[in-house]
Amino acid sequence: MDMTENLRPSGAHSTDQDPTSYPYASSYGTAYDSAPGGYPPPPAYAPATGRRKAKRPVALLAAVAIAAGVIGGGTATLVGRLNGQDSAATGSGGAVNGTTVSQSSKGTVAGVAEAVSPAIVEIGAASSAGKSTGSGVVITGDGEIVTNNHVISGAQQIRVTLSTGKTYTADVMGTDPDKDLALIKLRDASGLKTATLGDSSKVKVGEQVVAIGSPEGLTGTVTSGIVSALDRDVTVAKDDSGSSGQGQGQGRQGGGQEWPFEFGGQQFNGDTGEETTTYKALQTDASLNPGNSGGALINMDGEIIGINSAMYAPSSSAAGSGSSAGSVGLGFAIPVNTLKADLDTLRAGNGS
Q: Would you call 150 a catalytic residue per the annotation?
């Protein structure tokens, strides 16, 4: 297994209805053309025959109006949720929610990618041990970015590249090694496109998802798949003291070794060391590779449901193999509700 850091937006179903389509229609005149006796066709309008007949279209119009009201209300609720107005999809501590998927692109990978990609960044961390590349998710317009702790652990300098190519220097606001989460903030940033934080408690196995990150330094790479399992126990090193000789515990460019972690009682990418922590992860078959760490796992409404953190790569499971295999369809993400519950702590710099 390789960690997903590197060396260097379910769709709603259509509710379209045509309230102007009626289940009946009439055409006067044609039925009389062949009638016995050669009676002439009736006038082009139907004569009024009393109140009873006039009530039918009125009742139908009332029913159509009620149906349109129900549909309209559902659409308003959906639009509000996609614009971050639903409290269940809002991050704690004042996170700005900005990504939306247009109705015409809703439920498509292309629509999600277009909406969310501007809120996904590439993170370059440099230290005395080398350089590493990971990903991050912008959650406020002034530059708060969520990533994995192992992406920036021990970094002496952090540079962040937006999807536009603009770069910033970033500072660490807080880290939580127990959850493998970190919060960094860009210097002198404003007006950034931000992500909408969803609700991972509603995620179901089989739900379609999109992953966006910078695998192998390839900024803004989009992959897709499904959620293949829930609540997987993934164990990672809490700090840089692992015995695999990785310095900061980050993947190094050209080094071949990635962040070590445990799954199913086995260790991958080296020894996790004595100081470890275990978290419940979402499992996905969306392709994750080194450099995806800290990037976003997104549902088809364009909401962030997880922070990508690890990948399974069997050829690197042997200690000291030094290999760095690609994705085999087993990736792991920290549920977004874990992040939302931890945001205030991260902002205060009081992580565990």
A: yes
